[in-house]
Amino acid sequence: MRTALFALTAGGAHLALRLSGAVEGGGIIYLPERLRDSIATAHETVYFTRLADAIKTAFARYDALICVMATGIVVRMLAPYVESKLYDPAVLVFDEAGRHGISLLSGHIGGANELTRRLCAAVGADPVITTATDVTGVLAPDAMAARLALRPVPKSAIQVLNTALLEGKELSYYIASDLPHAAFYEAQLRAEEIQTRLFRGEIPPVGADEYRVVISCAEDMPKEYEPRTLYLVPRRLIAGVGCRAGVPEAKILRALTEACSMIGREPSMIDLFASTIVKRDEDGLLAAAATLGREIHFYPNEELAAMIERYGLAESDFVRQTIGVGNVSEAAALCAAGQEGGRMALGKTSFGKVTVALLWEK
After folding, report:
1. Could you give the CA distance from residue 7 to residue 5 in angstroms, rounded to a whole number?
2. The CATH number of 237-361 is which of 3.90.79.10, 3.30.43.10, 3.90.1150.10, 3.30.420.180?
3. SS3 of the chain: helix, strand, coil, percent, to 5
4. Which of 67, 105, 218, 286 lies at a 20 to 30 A Cα distance from 231?
5. Whole-prediction pTM value?
6. Per-residue pLDDT tens over the stretch 269-322
């Protein structure tokens, strides 16, 4: 998860630095220009002149925004850009004293609720979570979808099923038995004490007064959505890969295995590989993709550079000097995700001579 942490005062900056210690990769700290020489930090920091401009850029660039400031300021800054719970980043607000952490936006699908709990535990703050299902202690299907990297469809069914849960109704969970990794989804649901029903072929018709969740691939979805039914479709997992010249297949597969284990997945769950066109003839990389039976897309430097600029990706001077751009794994994964982008499951991580980034498409 790519994260930006904002603060407006010296006290807020110190809390942002503490919070960054509990964020994957540390995140990027954003501070006003007037604090440039008053906050000592070795952390990657961006200084802004106008908060509104910095928030506008960050809203489209990051998976999560953590704001140490008054909630009212954050609401006013975000208002023009909020679009959909399916695509908006997670937004958290902390008071400067670190007493409370508020899950403000994208609590379930964006992961704000879970991130709030984790960061509050790290700094000793009280988590403030207001989504009704969390308050009443029931597991909402869109929250489960976020954990399992599933896309909820249609959006309108989320509220229908969550309302049913709050009224004490039970949800039926169905899984297509021929869905790749169906056993994984079944095991994850059972770990939450959710019983599932397997089906093969056409999706069973919805029963009278039944509220249900159906996990199936996009190709098997009906042309017209049935009532009281939320469909959960697996998102593609894209692996952006960079490597030194001559790295053997075994080392690349080992790096992919370690990277996937860090997000609780197996390499077989990768749907697509992406890299720089400079590596289009790299035998080890081609062999690794072939072993896993996945396509690999190669992108020219111009497209990688555009993603580096669009998302403010960190660059390596060594990589830039070697191939012309300073970030391969994250930039290539974002290229493969397309215009709608994706949420970073694992930022670029070095495994010796192989660098891997994992991204869930939106």
Report:
1. 7
2. 3.30.420.180
3. 40, 25, 35
4. 105
5. 0.85
6. 999 999 999 999 999 999 999 999 999 999 999 999 999 999 888 888 888 888
